[in-house]
Every structure is written in structure tokens, then in C-alpha cells.
Amino acid sequence: MSKREDPRILLLEVKQEADLPKRFYEVYHTHLYCHKGSIKFSFNDQLMECKGGQFLFWFAESRLSGLHFSKNFQAIVLLVEKDFLMNNIPDQSWSINAQLHSRVYPVKTGITIQDKEKILTNFKRLNERFLETGHRFYEEALKLQMQLFILEMWHTFANEYEQRKHSLQTGTLYERFIQLLQRHCMQHREVQFYSNELNITAKYLNHLCKTHSGITASEWIQRHAKERIIILLQNKGLNISEIADEMEFSSRSFFTRYVKKLLGVTPNEYRGRLR
């Protein structure tokens, strides 16, 4: 797909993969409500499934592969161009945790009839605003509608997010590790911290993670730290020193070296690539 020609918003009825743009997940953030049937896929090297009555969200450029649609699959899909969505995320402290949560748990279960109606209404309103090109304040209205859409979706899934947070004491050791990671990856980037919290050895924690997900605890920590750093660097209201302080790095230079290791570029170089 040529990025210049990609519409910023697409609302589609989908029954098979051919109904979606080719390699859509490279350009668009995907919001999918499954009416019936199921879709199976590999997400961050884990096999997952979204069934009828469930909601699915994929960030653009996710590690996504192996899509398989059941014969009776039917869904409504809203695609939002990646930069347009990220540039219009409301400046809320809750946003970072919400984003990281969705990068680990893309399938939302327990959707009520009221949730379904709210989701589909939000899809329709954003698409209608996008199509209303004759509006005198088109760009301003569209950006505000995008922000409202995000807030409404956060509201709809806040309970699911909170319930998963509360599973810290009742889940398996692996699930508890993921929950701890979401809470503490800003300040703690060593396996030993998490193994101590779980009262197991670092070696055993790495073994558990490898068994459940195919990657080690250290790789999980790096992934979360990377996601958090990217989100913070995209917030132009924060300077590099403030981000380093928020993540409790001992110095800006140490933070710069860490980012270079994770992203292949320095924080300033990464920001220079942002539009």
C-alpha cells in the first residue's frame, strides 16, 4: 500500500482475509468486533483466538502472523492510520498503561450488549466524521472525534483492565510476572527484581517464561521497556531528561545508551524521525 494514498479511517464488514487491505497491520491500528465465528492468529509468538461477541485490538506493526478465519466468520472492522491515532491520543496518565495492556492482551472478553452497542456506535461516529469532508472545520473536528473515540474505548474496557490488574494474586506465576511487569517496567529492568517479588529464582522465572511464551523474562522486560520508551518519546511535551528521570535512570547519558541498545538510535535521533 502506498502510504500517501491510504485513507486515515476505514470501516469494513469482514468475512475473510481478502476483505482487508493487504498487509493492513503495517499501516493501520485494527479495531475488530467479532459478530460470529472466530479468528485465530499468532501475536508476539503466542497463539490466540477471538470469538463471536469478543473485541480485538492490534497496534500497527504488531508481531502478527498466521491469521485463520473460520468459515462462518463475520466482523465489523475499523482501521485507523497509525500516525493519525498516535498523534491524537489524549494526554492522560492512564494512556501508557492502557496501551501496554493492549499490547499484551489484544482480545477483550466479557463484552456486554451495552458494550457492543457502544463499540459499534463509536465505529460509526468516527467513520461518519471522517467522511464529512465538507465540514468547515474538518481537520479540527476529525481530531477531536478521534480523541473522543479513544476515551470512549478506554471507558468501555476500563473494567477489563482493572480486573486483570487484580489477578496479580490469583493467577499463575507467569501471569503474575506479566502483571508485575506492566506495573513496574518503568523503574525495574532486571529479572532479579521480578523473581524476588514472586519468591522464585531468576533462572526458574526465565524457564517459566520460555515455556509459556517462547521467550525469556529478560526479553519480556526489554519489550515492555521498549514500548514504554517509544510511547514517552512520542509525547513531545516531555524532554529527554524528564523521560530519563521518570524511568529512574541514573543519568541522561545512561538512558541514551539504553535507548540506543533497544531502538538502534538515540532518543534525539528517534524523535527526529517523527513527523
From TrEMBL:
Entry-linked PROSITE patterns: HTH_ARAC_FAMILY_2
Keyword vocabulary terms for this entry: DNA-binding, Transcription, Transcription regulation
Family matches, as SUPFAM superfamilies: Homeodomain-like (SSF46689)
HTH araC/xylS-type domain residues: 175-273
Protein's UniProt keywords contain Transferase: no
Top-rank taxon: Bacteria
GO molecular function: DNA-binding transcription factor activity; sequence-specific DNA binding
One Pfam family in the UniProt entry: HTH_18
Name of this protein: AraC-type DNA-binding protein
Organism: Chitinophaga niabensis
